[in-house]
From TrEMBL:
It comes from the Eukaryota. InterPro entries: Elm1-like. This is Mitochondrial fission protein ELM1. SUPFAM superfamilies: UDP-Glycosyltransferase/glycogen phosphorylase (SSF53756). One of its GO terms (biological process) is mitochondrial fission. Pfam families: Mito_fiss_Elm1 (PF06258). One of its GO terms (cellular component) is mitochondrial outer membrane. It comes from Artemisia annua (Sweet wormwood).
C-alpha cells in the first residue's frame, strides 16, 4: 500500500517582527488551560487542539467534577452547580438521619474519574483560574482556555466574563445558546442538522431545539466534519516506531476492526455483532491479519459474540483490554479499518490517516448522526462494509484534517484580536 503523507499541524506565524510591534508579551499566548469533564472522548478533543497549537508542554488540565453513583445518575441532566447543591443537601440530611440513629454514614458517591487519580487533577474553580489569569498576565501573557462538553460550558463562559482582557476562550461542541459567551466555538456541522430540509421533514418541531441551535452559525463558529483529536503525522510516526516490533512482522494487509457501542442515535445489539462477524468471515481470505478492539461502551453481549465467532481463527487477534492500549499502533500500522458507526471520535481518527475506512451499521444511525455519515460518504472518506470487499485492494482520499484546520482558525481569531501564539 502506498503510504499517505499527512499534513503537518499548523506552525506558528513567522517570527520576523519584534514582540514590541505585536503587543509585547501581553499579546503572546504561551500557555493553555484545558477544562475537562472526566470523559476521554471530550477531553481528547481539547488536548488535540492544544497539541495542534503547539502548547502541549504548557497546558494545565482542570476538571469539572460531578457527583456520581446511586441517585446522582438520575440528576445528570441538571447543571453541575444545581446537581452539586442538591447532592450536598441530600448528603447533609442523610448524615443527620443516620447519625441520630447511631448508624455509620455511608459514602454516597464518587466524582468524575471514579475517585482514582483525582488528586493530580485540579478542580475547575472559576475564581482560582481567573485569579491566575489576571495575576500572571503581565509576565506570562494572555491565557488560552479550551473546554469541551456540556458540563464545562458555565465554567468556560464565566472565566471569559470575569477575565475577558486576559483570556481567549474556545468552547468545543456547541453550547446550544449564547455563542457570544465565547471567543470561538468549534463544533461539527451536523450539529446544525435540524436546520436542513431533511430535518424539517424527519424531526418533530417540538424536538428540534433540543437537537441543535435554532439559528445558523455566526462568525465565531468553526464548523468541522467530525471530532477533534490528537492523531497527527508526528503522533503516527512515533506510534509506528513504538509498535514496530509487534506490528511490522504481521502478514499484510493488516485490517483493524474498532467496535464501539450503541447510542440513542445509533441503536444496535447482537444483530449487528452477528452481521459484522458474518461479513468478516467472508473477507478473511483477502486479509493477512485482523486485529479487533472493543471500546469501554461495547456491551458484553456484543463482545461475547465476536469472541465466540472469531476468537479461535488463526488470522484474528482480539485485544484483551490490558495495557498498553494498541490504538495508536493500529492507526499507524493498519492497511484498512472497519469501524462501527456509533463513534464520531473513532471515525474521525481513522479518517485522518487517508487509509481505507469501512463502516458497519451506518443505516442504523438517525438524524444528525445519519447526516454525519452521509457527509463522510459524499467526501469519499468511508465506504459501507458489505462482506464482498477484496481487502487487499487499496484506495485513499485527502485525510480528514479537522484539528489542524480548527487550529488555523484559532490563529486567525487571535490575530484579529491583536494576539498571536508562540509555543
Amino acid at each position: 500500500m502506498k503510504p499517505i503523507r499527512l499534513p503537518e499541524p499548523p506552525g506558528s506565524p513567522p517570527r520576523g517582527v519584534p514582540d514590541i510591534f505585536e503587543g509585547g508579551v501581553y499579546g503572546v499566548v504561551k500557555r493553555a488551560v484545558i477544562i475537562g469533564n472526566g470523559f476521554p472522548a471530550s477531553e481528547n478533543q481539547s488536548i488535540g487542539l492544544v497539541r495542534a497549537l503547539g502548547l502541549s508542554e504548557r497546558q494545565t488540565l482542570y476538571r469539572v467534577t460531578r457527583p456520581r453513583g446511586g441517585i446522582n445518575e438520575w440528576m445528570h441532566w441538571l447543571p453541575v452547580s444545581v446537581h452539586k447543591q442538591i447532592y450536598y443537601i441530600i448528603r447533609l440530611i442523610s448524615q443527620v438521619l443516620f447519625t441520630s440513629r447511631g448508624s455509620k454514614v455511608q459514602s454516597l458517591t464518587g466524582e468524575n474519574g471514579g475517585g482514582v487519580g483525582l488528586s493530580s487533577i485540579l478542580e475547575a474553580d472559576v475564581r482560582s483560574i481567573v485569579t491566575m489569569a489576571r495575576g500572571s498576565a503581565e509576565k506570562e501573557g494572555p491565557l488560552l482556555v479550551v473546554a469541551c462538553g456540556r458540563d464545562t460550558i458555565s465554567i468556560a463562559s464565566s472565566i471569559r466574563k470575569l477575565a475577558s482582557e486576559n483570556v481567549f476562550v474556545v468552547q468545543i461542541q456547541h453550547p446550544r445558546s449564547q455563542l457570544s459567551r465565547f471567543d470561538l466555538v468549534i463544533t461539527p456541522q451536523h450539529d446544525y442538522y435540524a436546520l436542513t430540509p431533511q430535518a424539517q421533514e424527519q424531526v418533530p418541531k417540538f424536538l428540534r431545539k433540543y437537537i441543535t441551535p435554532d439559528e445558523p452559525p455566526n462568525k465565531n463558529v468553526v464548523l468541522t466534519i467530525g471530532a477533534l483529536h490528537q492523531v497527527d503525522s508526528a503522533a503516527l510516526r512515533s506510534a509506528a516506531i513504538a509498535w514496530h516490533d509487534e506490528f511490522a512482522p504481521l502478514p499484510k494487509p493488516l485490517i483493524v476492526v474498532n467496535i464501539g457501542g450503541p447510542t440513542s442515535r445509533c441503536r444496535y445489539g447482537t444483530d449487528l455483532a452477528k452481521q459484522l462477524t458474518t461479513y468478516l468471515n467472508s473477507v478473511l481470505d483477502s486479509c493477512g491479519s485482523v486485529r479487533i478492539s472493543f471500546s469501554r461502551r461495547t456491551p458484553d453481549k456484543v463482545a461475547t459474540i465476536v469472541r465466540k465467532e472469531l476468537g479461535d481463527l488463526p488470522k484474528v487477534y482480539i485485544w484483551d483490554g490490558e495495557e498498553p492500549n494498541p490504538h495508536m499502533g493500529h492507526l499507524a500500522w493498519a492497511d484498512a479499518f472497519i469501524v462501527t458507526a456509533d463513534s464520531v471520535s473513532m471515525l474521525s481518527e481513522t479518517c485522518s490517516t487517508g487509509k481505507p475506512v469501512y463502516v458497519v451499521g451506518a443505516e442504523r444511525c438517525k438524524w444528525k448522526f445519519g447526516e454525519f455519515h452521509k457527509t463522510l460518504r459524499e467526501r469519499g472518506l468511508v465506504r459501507p462494509f458489505t462482506g464482498l470487499e477484496d481487502m487487499s485492494e487499496s484506495w485513499s482520499y485527502p485525510p480528514l484534517n479537522d484539528t489542524a484546520e480548527a487550529a488555523n482558525r484559532v490563529h486567525e481569531a487571535l490575530a484579529e484580536r491583536g494576539w498571536r501564539l508562540r509555543p
